[in-house]
Design a protein that fits this description.
Two copies of one chain form a homodimer.
Chain A lengths: L7 E6 L3 E7 L5 E8 L6 H18 L9 E6 L2 E3 L4 E4 L7 E3 L1 H9 L4 E4 H12 L8 E6 L3 E7 L2 E3 L29 H5 L1 H13 L6 H4 L9 H9 L3 H25 L3 E5 L7 H14 L2 H6 L1 E4 L6 H12 L3
Parallel strand pairs in A: 1-4, 4-8, 9-12, 12-13
Antiparallel strand pairs in A: 1-2, 2-3, 5-6, 6-7, 9-10, 10-11
Helix pairs in contact in A: 3-11, 5-7, 5-8, 7-8, 8-9
């Protein structure tokens, strides 16, 4: 059995960045670095950048792979943990059955663990973040898309094929538009950062006025959730409305989670969650108005505490929890 | 500790019937009887009928309360198990904080267990019905309303305040009509037996032809899910469409459950589930079309096996699982 006192080398394989870190069993980040994902440059280049990142981190701390508790990869996509594949990933276009485990093993003679990034973030927040000591919680990541992770009885709930937690792909508008996933009216296409940017763009194209047009210097195709937030913080009416609408949808998703899971806590992380109360306040109000009394009273809806590191930290937690 | 070889006296307190049974730890029903609920006659009369039912069953088998492993009540409503109350019940109008436990205790000097009826049915089906040996499953009861029970890691999942499993009150049509629960576009108002009867009635009132009109002898206010089923089995187009539409909504609810829980099985019980494949076939198709591949492939959608007894049997299972 590997010592719990050796660090885990954790990798967060995201749509924008590949982040690597050495993390202790107390969740402490001992070293960290990143490179850009640049998925458009192709799979091989991207895997090369991941391996270089691992190398740099190992040499920085003068460590050999056998001096690690293990390696652990959190990836934005559906994981086949048995075969060690990322089977598909909405934010890593062109990824189909990528043998990430084999790629790492062939270089370092180490079998890395593989976990979905939202599941990892749920674990990270449960062990060392907002959910410390909370036995039943749902973690929601709101960014380009919406993902989720479920902690039940203090453990990550993965389902029978390891794919549980796809909370962003819950239909809440059965007559709504088609989602990329093939389903209809998913929470993700109504409440994600992408949804906010699209909605703001649509309204401005229809002739509504907004300071956003000036913020993006007339290039409305450059509107993002961040620019919408920036405009909203400056008091822009359209931006405030767009965020409030998305937050209401997010609240409807949370009502479903509250009625089904009766959880102690819903933690909201991911890029868009940086909007903070702008997003959480309306969502909380919807839950109080619409969910059953008992679960509405029980659930605390809070922001994540580990920020961009929740996936990395969670990947490490996942590795420490395995028997090796 | 009470012997596991004594039977449990189980009570199913439903909107239509009060059913009582003596049940062994192998799930065998040794004696069973029922009376009508007649909730409209008031609380006291109804509790009187429940107590008489218990008395008849005890005297039939010549048993005293101390010769039972315990008593266990499954009730259609929200349970406060700490205080022993049925706090509210959609199908038992006028019920608010009814001290069912005290009522039973004061007569028999026995503290009965209390459990929500859909949760009980989930337990019953998991131990002795369609879900035997299945570790992760969702039980859905489709009748007047839609309820649910969740089995995770072989155990009933209750949530932090014991109210988990309100699957019927998941919004799937955010722009839809208001539900009695205060939420909007709930699965229950789109796919329950009540929803089917309402939809058929609405369409006939608007002038559409259907054999249903003849079946209810012109009294279209008498249309129920049962008459809709009867008409559908006779090939009635409108009835078939109404069922197919409700089944599609039910399928959408199951897509959400599949994506979120990635369960091994979804079991469908309750009065309307007697429609069998008429209901399950379209629902299964929707799941295959819209859910993520892994959970769609993994989930088996099957009818309940214990019929009207799943709640009774589950109440007994619940009692046998408690430490007493």
């Amino acid at each position: 059995m590997k010592s719990q006192f050796l660090p885990v080398l954790a990798i967060d394989l995201g749509g924008t960045k590949i982040r690597t870190a050495l993390i202790s069993n107390k969740g402490k980040i001992m070293a960290k670095e990143y490179s850009l994902t640049l998925a458009s440059e192709g799979l091989e280049a991207m895997m090369g950048r991941m391996l270089s990142g691992i190398d740099r981190l190992l040499s920085l701390k003068n460590l050999a792979p056998f001096q690690l508790h293990g390696m652990s990869i959190a990836a934005a996509g559906a994981i086949d943990s048995e075969k060690g594949l990322v089977t598909s990933s909405p934010n890593l276009p062109g990824w189909h059955d990528v043998p990430v485990r084999d790629i790492v093993r062939s270089k370092y003679k180490v079998d890395p663990f593989l976990i979905n990034d939202a599941s990892a973030a749920a674990l990270g927040e449960h062990e060392f973040g907002a959910g410390k000591g909370v036995n039943n919680l749902i973690y929601l990541t709101v960014g380009t898309g919406i993902g989720g992770g479920i902690i039940i009885d203090g453990k990550l709930y993965c389902g029978v094929s390891g794919s549980a937690g796809e909370i962003g792909h819950m239909t809440i508008d059965v007559n709504g538009t088609r989602c990329n996933c093939g389903n209809t009216g998913c929470l993700e296409i109504l409440a994600s950062g992408t949804a906010m940017a699209k909605e703001a763009t649509r309204r401005i194209k229809q002739g509504e006025g907004s300071s956003l047009t000036k913020i993006v210097e007339g290039k409305i195709e450059n509107i993002t959730a961040e620019t919408v937030e920036f405009a909203a913080r400056g008091g822009d009416y359209l931006a405030l409305e767009v965020i409030s609408k998305a937050a209401t949808y997010l609240g409807v998703g949370m009502v479903n989670l509250a009625n089904i899971f009766n959880p102690e806590m819903i933690i909201v992380g991911g890029g868009v969650a940086k909007m903070g109360e702008l997003l959480l306040e309306p969502a909380r109000r919807v839950v109080q108005e619409r969910a059953f009394k008992l679960p509405a009273k029980a659930v605390r809806i809070v922001p994540a505490q580990l920020g961009d590191d929740s996936g990395l930290v969670g990947a490490a937690v996942f590795a420490f929890q395995q028997k090796i």
